[in-house]
Write a structure and sequence with these properties.
Layout: E1 3-4, H1 5-10, E2 21-22, E3 24-26, E4 36-39, H2 52-57, E5 62-65, E6 77-79, H3 83-94, E7 103-108, H4 113-126, E8 131-134, E9 138-141, E10 144-147, H5 155-164, E11 169-173, H6 176-180, E12 189-194, H7 202-205, H8 208-216, E13 222-231, H9 235-246, E14 251-254, E15 263-269, E16 275-280, E17 283-288, H10 294-310, H11 314-322, E18 332-335, E19 341-345, H12 350-362, E20 368-372, H13 383-393, E21 396-399, H14 409-420, E22 426-428, H15 432-442, E23 448-452, H16 470-480, E24 487-488
Parallel strand pairs: 3-4, 4-5, 5-6, 7-11, 7-12, 8-11, 12-13, 13-14, 19-23, 20-21, 20-23, 21-22
Antiparallel strand pairs: 1-2, 8-9, 9-10, 15-16, 16-17, 18-19, 18-24
Helix pairs in contact: 3-5, 4-10, 4-11, 10-11, 12-13, 15-16
The structure holds ligand UAG and adenosine-5'-triphosphate.
Ligand UAG binds next to helix 6.
Binding site for ATP: 109-115
GO molecular function, one term: UDP-N-acetylmuramoylalanyl-D-glutamate-2,6-diaminopimelate ligase activity
Domain Mur ligase central: 107-306
Length: 490
């Protein structure tokens, strides 16, 4: 790709005569190549403006920043009000407004983004459409899988992938960080889907009101003909739906009750599998899925409504939903030959944990064992509530390590011990894989073990078992114990 600086600046409405070629845009001075434009942002950890010289040394031919510099640079410097916003606009233009090529579906909410994006991907693909999917687990473009760096990639990577993608549809998760940092910006979505909102990321947003307002901004990124799809099974969704109506942003709701919607849930069952009965424009429909849990009732109906809005028939959507196998690390099940079960789930918020444990409890006839930890340097204010939920819904609780995020192990263990103090049945174990081995040795017919927090994510710490993640650990221990014929849900 090649664009002129002045051509790019026109999109920012800044005058100038810097007639030089720009061959790439970078946010990180370490990634700069000859001919790139470097955008300096005032970050949360460091200040991008401090890396301007290093960017120039690495080959940057122009710099955009939001601070007045004390010196004159050897390359043009353009000062803007907000570097991240400018970056979003520039990246969009650099890659020729690639959202126009696709039907774009943005999914936001505290929980259920990944699951809903997988459901929609599956429904559309099952019906012969080509689909890109961007989110926490991976980025899939033109059928190729790439490692995901952030749930919502930065504006440069996002626009680059949208440009590269030849897919008709793009289903992407939009995090509140992504919205706040203008990784998405401007009218780029055909559909914006809100799943729910609950306690999460308060280290970043400070309170739920700010968190909500940030999520709501996604609905300002709808294209002219775009539509909002709002889960109203929680009070924040109800509020959002009302506010969008007041602001004349076309949207439809999905939830438990009929508030005049054309599609609404009539009844459902959550275990052994999700079964839904709902009304679609006066006709009763039934879906029998392979996945479990009340939360997946809402994820299924949200994806159903989106697929119907896109133009698929009820049968086309239902047939696809009934063949959906599940999402890696989202209530993934391992059937142990002695009649016990293990569940791996990515729940890392109080609300998600409530749903995950409730589902595990419903799937377990005897005792339920819960193994959980907390990622260090992430919203600590949710930890006490999560421990309380675990204490209430499981019979035995084991607190162990999650991603330490460069925190001292002893410091984290002390925090876990403090959290466990009020509860007698909570045990703190420092090796996640040993905690799994210990609980596996206790499981009898009818018992369940649920491990939450990491889903399919790989360990960042060294443990006794040299496995990469919770699922691998379970399978390795079962193999070593001589169990044969165990079945996994994915
Ligand atoms: C808290 C947060 O959101 N941080 C994001 C933010 O980083 P930042 O503002 O703190 O950047 P910084 O590290 O202070 O550095 C400032 C600038 O200096 C630049 N720099 C830095 C060093 C250097 O040598 N040269 C250089 O140019 C950096 O590239 C950056 O542009 O902007 C960066 C560039 O876009 C992101 O990579 C970074 O995500 C970090 C890695 C992160 O962990 N983010 C998480 C919290 C996040 O965004 N998660 C959400 C999902 C959450 C969820 O729903 O679970 C996501 O969408 O992934
Ligand atoms: N609709 C929902 N409501 C509440 N909890 C949910 C819902 N869907 C999933 N969960 C719970 O949240 C966990 C994470 O689900 P999922 O990955 O789909 O959410 P997410 O919004 O993508 O989260 P993240 O952005 O952190 O990856 C699941 O493992 C489950 O425990």
């Amino acid at each position: 790709m090649k664009k002129t600086l002045i051509g790019l600046l026109e999109s920012l409405e800044i005058q100038g005569n810097e007639d030089i070629d720009i061959t790439g845009i970078q946010l990180d001075s370490r990634k700069i190549k000859d001919g790139d434009l470097f955008v300096a942002v005032s970050g949360h950890e460091s200040d991008g403006h401090e890396f301007i010289h290093s960017a120039i040394e690495n080959g940057a031919v122009a710099i955009i920043g939001e601070k007045k510099l004390k010196e004159i640079l050897s390359v043009p410097y353009i000062q803007v009000c907000d570097s991240r916003k400018a970056l979003s606009i520039l990246a969009n233009h650099f890659y020729d407004l690639p959202h126009h090529k696709h039907k774009m579906i943005g999914i936001t909410g505290t929980n259920g983004k990944t699951t809903t994006s997988y459901l929609l991907h599956h429904i559309l693909q099952h019906n012969g459409k080509t689909v890109a999917r961007l989110g926490t687990v991976e980025y899939v473009i033109n059928g190729d899988k790439r490692e995901s760096s952030l749930t919502t990639p930065d504006a440069i990577l996002l626009q680059q992938m949208l440009h590269e993608s030849e897919d008709e549809y793009v289903v992407m998760e939009v995090s509140s960080h992504g919205i706040d940092q203008y990784r998405v910006h401007g009218p780029m979505f055909d559909y914006a889907l809100f799943t729910n909102l609950s306690h999460e990321h308060l280290d970043y947003h400070k309170d739920l009101e700010n968190y909500y307002r940030t999520k709501k901004k996604l609905f300002r990124c709808l294209k002219n003909e775009g539509k909002g799809l709002v889960g109203t099974y929680g009070s924040w969704g109800e509020r959002l739906y009302e506010e969008l109506a007041e602001e004349l942003i076309p949207s439809i709701s999905f939830g438990q009750s009929s508030g005049g919607e054309s599609i609404y849930l009539k009844a459902y069952q959550t275990v052994p599998n999700v079964n839904l009965v709902f009304d679609d424009n006066g006709k009763e429909q039934v879906i029998q899925m392979k996945i479990q849990g009340e939360h997946n009732v809402y994820n299924a109906i949200g994806s159903y409504i989106c697929a119907r809005e896109i133009g698929l028939s009820p049968n086309e959507v239902i047939e696809a939903l009934e063949t959906f196998e599940g999402v890696p690390g989202r209530f993934e099940t391992v059937e142990i030959p002695n009649g016990a079960r293990a569940f791996i789930d990515y729940a890392h918020t109080p609300d998600g944990l409530q749903y995950a444990l409730q589902t595990a409890k419903e799937c377990t006839e005897q005792s339920l064992y819960h193994i959980l930890g907390f990622r260090a340097k992430r919203d600590c204010s949710k930890r006490e509530t999560m421990v309380e939920i675990s204490q209430n819904l499981s019979d035995y609780v084991f607190l162990t390590l999650d991603d330490l995020n460069e925190t001292e192990k002893e410091k984290m263990l002390a925090e876990l011990r403090e959290l466990s103090k009020p509860y007698q049945k909570i045990v703190v174990l420092d090796d996640r894989t040993e905690a799994i081995a210990h609980v596996l040795s206790l499981l009898r017919k009818g018992d369940g073990m649920i491990i939450t927090g990491k889903g399919p994510e790989n360990y960042t710490e060294e443990y006794r078992y040299k496995t990469r993640n919770d699922k691998e650990t379970i399978l390795k221990i079962l193999e070593e114990s001589g169990f044969e014929g165990f079945k996994t849900s994915l």
